[in-house]
Fold:
Amino acid sequence: MTSPQPLSNSGVKFPPPTVFVIAVGLAWLLETRLVRLRLVGETASPFLLEIIGALLLLAGFALIAWGLYTFASAHTGILPMRSATKIVDYGPYRFSRNPMYTGMAIMYLGGGLVLNWGWALILLPVAMLAIYQLVIKREERYLHSAFPTEFGDYRARVRRWL
Structure:
């Protein structure tokens, strides 16, 4: 009996940011077509909410950019449809196994705050669950197949999100 061949990639068939784009679109539809859910009411100023949201947008973008730069400097596949050449465990990957997805979630949250959309906040856990089910589980299965020892050690030391 032979052992199974390692997977050549994660098997993810779409760019992961698509999940957050769909969530934003759904939040927009719900906000404009169903019922407007404001985080801050009609009489209160949303200025502080907008400032916090803008800071979260910037922080999420910075985390994504740092993750992309780290993968590019490691010369490994950035897109989950591509093969990885190694386990990257430095840069933001010291703190999170998924800093780019964490950054996307932070940006999404920031955008929801800036727009004062309650639906965006309600849909955030749905988007994160979709990323986990459709992307992260597949990526982790692939990485375990391609780098069993290295990924096992990495997974034991570093959290999935933050």
Summary: The chain has a mean pLDDT of 93. DSSP finds five helices and no strands in the chain.
